[in-house]
Amino acid sequence: MAIILAGSTYSYSSARVKAMESNLVGAQTMQNIIDAGSVEAALSILFQQPAYKDDIAKYGGTSIKSNQIDFALSRNLAESVNKLVEIAPTAQRKVLRALVGRWDIQNIRLAIEAKERGLGFDQIAANVIDTSVGSSAIKEAMRESTVEGMLSRLAINSPYAEIIKGASNAYSKARNITDAISALDVGYYSSLSGVIYQISSEHYQSALIVKMHIDSKNIMTLIRAKKAGMQFKQIEPYLVANGSMHRKELEQVYDSARDLDEMVNHITRFDLKDGLEVYKKTGRLLPFEVAMNNHILNRGLSVLRPTILSFGTMLAYIYIKELEVRTLRIAINSKVYGIAPEDLSRLIAWKK
């Protein structure tokens, strides 16, 4: 009976998601874009992809200016995730909106960083994803002269009002944007507890993907702190709830290790050995994040083709689409800024 109900509930939305999935950039095409010798060559390949043709055409087609590429990619991601919410079964729409809300939080984070650095909206516009707190809301709020004023404007009639107020309070205490951004993340992911419970009751593997994403954020916090020689109690307020690694486990992993190398080897949720090797050579932390993104991608791919129509089809699409756009952004911009192929491979979480 459960299988019949699942099929009935998700038959339409899953068919639509499968159609959207068919428009994802294939592995060989993605590799061709990564390997392309110029921006023009990469864009020519991408322009042939049905899912991106209209967005690139809107900003000039294959003659698109380099500073417009991010606009086209951000627009494509926004259209995809917004469409996903629209086609979801009514009962699941609220859940998906809550998950898509992380782009709203990301937009607010961009605004905080820009305001602190004295930048205007135009300087971050290309990276704003037009979900519910999109370009219009961010642009209007950034007209305020202070970080607190901007956050106060964003909190008006917002479903994230309490989260935004928490970020504003955190900023006011020490005038530190790191505290504000951490408060945003902690507030948002803490608010997902009910959503994760609901997803777990329908499709346990889907809930694990969300928890894995939270784990990756917490692990990066541990890694940065261990590199800086901080005590666990100093970073505890920055840890996000609702991951599969609870606070006690995070504390034990952190405190039982003498240094970053030892701590990374104690982490079992993700395989970070390759990231550690790159870190030893370069001192860069990004390869750890890339390794975790790869792991989430592979799990997402396994959930995207479930034997039973389910919520997992939609959730996995969100993560894979986001990773696709991020990979395209890095691959194309690397040609603009002349990033060497060996350095590019460390930035991209995409398997051939």
Structural topology:
Layout: H1 2-22, H2 27-35, H3 39-47, H4 50-58, H5 69-87, H6 90-116, H7 135-141, H8 147-155, H9 161-174, H10 177-190, H11 193-202, H12 204-228, H13 232-235, H14 247-255, H15 260-266, H16 273-282, H17 286-304, H18 311-337, H19 341-347
Structural write-up:
With 352 residues, the protein is mainly α. The protein is 73% helix and 0% strand.
Uncertain stretches: 1-7
Count the strands? Answer: 0
Rg, Cα atoms, Å: 20 Å
Element pattern in H and E: HHHHHHHHHHHHHHHHHHH
What is the end-to-end distance?
Answer: 39 Å
Oligomeric nature of the chains: single chain
Mean pLDDT: 87
| Relative helix content | over 70%
Largest sheet: none
Provide a compact summary of the structure.
By secondary structure, the protein is mainly alpha-helical. It contains 19 helices and no strands. The radius of gyration is 20 Å and the shape is globular.
List keywords for this structure.
mainly alpha; 352 residues; disordered N terminus; 19 helices
